[in-house]
Amino acid sequence: MSGAPLAGALVERDWRTPLELTVLGAIWGCSFLFMRVAVPAFGPYALVEIRLLLGALVLLPFLWQARAQFPARRWLWLAPIGIINSAIPFVLFAWAAQRAPAAIGAICNAMTVLFAALMAFLFFGEKIGMRRAIALLVGFAGVVVLATAKVSGLSIGAAVIAGAMAALLYGLGVNLVKRHMTGLPPAASAGATLGCAALVLMPMALTHWPSAPVPTLSWICAIALGVVCTGLAFLMFYRLIARIGPARASTVTYLVPMFGALFAWLFLGEPVTGPMIVAGVLILGSVAASQRR
After folding, report:
1. In the prediction, which pLDDT does 292 show?
2. Which whole-number Å values give the CA distances from 86 to 52, 69, 177, 199, 292, in the listed order?
C-alpha cells in the first residue's frame, strides 16, 4: 500500500517530463518565428528591448519575493551576466533573423551546449575530454556547412556567424551563472539579469525606435516573444532543472531546431534545404554525443 503513491508519482513524472520538454522546445522554436516576423518592423534593438522588459516583468514577482537574497554586491555580477547571457545574444539572433530563415538561428542555438563545454575548458579549468573535443569539431563542421550554404540564392553566412556568436555567449553565460549565482532562486535570478539587460540596452532601443507605425502582427509577435518565449519559458525551464537536473533539462536543445524549422515552413513558407538538414544533423549529433555519460 505504501508503494502505491510512489508508483503513481513515478508514472506522473514519466509522462509529465517529456510533455513539458516538448512544450518548451516548441515555445523556444516559436521564438525564432516571432523574431523573423517582428524584426523588420521594429529592428533588432527595439524588439529585444521589448522582449527583455516583458520577460523581466513576468519574473518580477519572484525577484521581489527573494529580494533579501540580492544585496548590492550581487548586482556587480548580475548586470554583466545579463549583458552576456541575454542582451547581446538576443540582439545577434534578431539581427540574424533579418537576413536568414528562422531555422538558421534555431540550428545555431543548438551549439550552446558545446560552447558551454568549450568556455569551461578555456576559462574555468574544466577538462573537456576526447569525446567532447571531437563533438566540438563535428559541431563546428556543421556551422561551416550552414555558413557556406545559400537559401533561395542568397548567402546566409553573416547570419550564421551572428547566431554562432550568440550561442558562444550563451555558453559563456552558462558558466558565469554556475559560478556566481549558485544558491540564488533561479526564477528571481533570471528576472534580475533580464532587468539589467533591459536597462543597458534601453538607450540603443530608444535611439533606434521605429519611426513608422508598427503592424499589429509585429506587436503580437513581440509581446509573445517577451511574455511566453522569455518570461514563461524561463519559469518552465528552471522548474524542469529543479525536478530532473540540468543535464536532462538541456535535452530541450535537440527539439528547438526541429520546431523552429517546422514553424517557419508551416507559417512563413521558408524552405528547409539539404545543407540545413546536414548542418542540423552534424550539430545536433555532436551535442547528443557530448552529453552521453
Report:
1. 65
2. 8, 22, 12, 12, 28
